[in-house]
Amino acid sequence: MFKKSICTIAVLSLFTACAEKNDNVDTYDLSTHWFNMKSLDNNKVVINKNYTEQYNNGNKTSSYVDFNVYKKNKTGIYQIEKYSFFEDINKENYKSMLLDKNVDLKYNISQNDINEEFELDKKQVSSYKKDIKINDKVIDEVDIDGNILVCTFTNYHKNINVKDKINTYFKAEYFAKDKNYNDVVELSCKDSFMENEYHIYMAKNMGTILFMGIGEEDGSVVDTFSILDTQTILD
User: Fold this and answer.
1) Whole-angstrom Cα distance, residue 118 to residue 97?
2) CA 78 to CA 66: how far, in whole Å?
3) Phi/psi at 33 (5° precision)
4) Phi-psi map region of 97: left, alpha, beta (phi>0 left; psi -120 to 50 alpha)
5) pLDDT per residue over 49-105, tens digit each?
6) Max alpha carbon distance in the chain (Å)?
7) Are strands 125-129 and 180-191 parallel, antiparallel or unpaired?
8) Which residues, other chains included, contact 139 with Cβ-Cβ below 8 Å and sequence gap of 6+?
9) Where are the domains positioned within the chain?
10) Is there a contact between 235 and 72 (Cβ–Cβ < 8 Å)?
11) Nearest to 136 by CA among 115, 113, 152
């Protein structure tokens, strides 16, 4: 998911019987934050439009838009498929575009894990802990290329403002649009392939709403963030 530039439920009830936070329980169902399970369980198609910006030593060097499409596999197993596009995809063209596109990632969610399968290399399967508490390692793996990925559930936020998170993290005025979300989990990840630490924020029944990290390239500091711009739900 996170390093691949980026459900199966054992029983149907897991799509709707999601872990909720209360005064006594602080366990969260990662699948309900990773995906818009409420819509997917109703066989809807979810289209996320993402906006990404990159800065080199504080100067904006690139920006782009991409799209992720999620839908539930209808073959009788509970599996979520992800398709990625850089072309505009919308309610008028999404069916034809999906026909011409191979699935990029498949997610199988069991009672305890979320298994992510990279469709181009089915030997490359990542397993994430599904029911998580603060300070749990969500994933700790070495992939087939020897890259190490560790992600830890570091914070739960009842609500966040994306603009404030971005500008505080980078100590710069990069983003000016207020976008507010409730019920958000934060994962902090270290990836030897990317050689930096990054943070992922997921809102319940929305998915990934914010990714941001600080890296280095040719001696320069590189700041990158990606936000969920819009989410469209289609039949």
Assistant:
1) 20
2) 26
3) -100, -30
4) alpha
5) 999 999 999 999 999 999 999 999 877 568 999 999 999 999 899 999 999 899 999
6) 51
7) unpaired
8) 126, 127, 128, 129, 149, 150, 151
9) 12-234
10) no
11) 152
